[in-house]
Design goal:
mainly alpha; 2 domains; 10 helices
Length: about 230
């Protein structure tokens, strides 16, 4: 024999309430008061159980934090971060032999600048690899922060150049790129970190974090095109 469901209980209670007069004896109102009160109570309980079951069935399943994170950035962001992470990691590994090169500087300022550069070369592969790992596992915000940290690290090593060479402002392509690296890219890197920490506008934060790499790629393409057209 199947168990009575809450909806059946509600229908049974309504039927019991409607037909309670037929089940009660007709020899006095005092005798009918108890059974009628009992039928009304059963009716109310059945209705509440049925209403509760209906309200529970209407509750939607909440989204998980990972689904919310995935919907917080465009689909291309993760792909771009993986590609940039691979390029940055390979470039950082290729620069590692520069740590052991002796430039034979004879002033304290030049030696300090070389020490900063060597420190950047040693740390950059770790940061680039972290950016690549975070992009692969889907931790987009962490990958953006790592790429922005690479920009800030490069800008830090350029600080002694102000004292050694001055601002070096001119209209040629190399000077423009150098000015962007010193004055514009650090601001964009800080903006990218702020957006990534707040988990907002991650597409724009990604563009800020990869802009130096895009500029370098444009420079390489321009150099290769010049060599192809004019030769060495």
């Amino acid at each position: 024999m199947r168990a009575r469901q809450p909806r059946d209980v509600g229908l049974f209670a309504v039927g019991l309430s409607e037909n309670s007069d037929a089940l009660l004896p007709s020899n006095g109102r005092m005798k009918t008061y108890g059974p009628r009160l009992l039928a009304d109570a059963v009716c109310q309980i059945g209705a509440l159980v049925a209403r509760r079951r209906c309200s529970e069935s209407d509750v939607t399943t909440p989204t998980t934090p990972s689904e919310t994170k995935a919907a917080a950035y465009p689909s291309w962001v993760r792909v771009v971060l993986v590609i940039v992470g691979v390029v940055e990691t390979l470039a950082a590994l290729a620069d590692l032999p520069g740590i052991f090169y002796d430039y034979e500087h004879n002033t304290a300022l030049l030696k300090f600048a070389q020490a900063l550069t060597s420190l950047r070369i040693a740390i950059s592969p770790l940061i680039a690899a972290a950016a690549l790992y975070f992009a692969i596992v889907g931790r987009v915000s962490h990958s953006i922060i790592a790429l922005a940290a690479l920009i800030l690290l490069l800008s830090l090593t350029e600080l002694p150049s102000f004292a050694i060479h001055g601002l070096e402002l001119s209209r040629d392509f190399t000077s423009i790129v150098l000015a962007l690296q010193r004055f514009v890219y650090p601001v964009l890197a800080v903006a990218a970190i702020v957006l990534a920490v707040k988990d907002r506008l991650l597409g724009l934060a990604t563009l800020f974090a990869i802009l130096p790499g895009l500029t370098a790629a444009v420079g390489v393409l321009a150099f290769a095109l010049g060599v192809t057209i004019y030769g060495f």
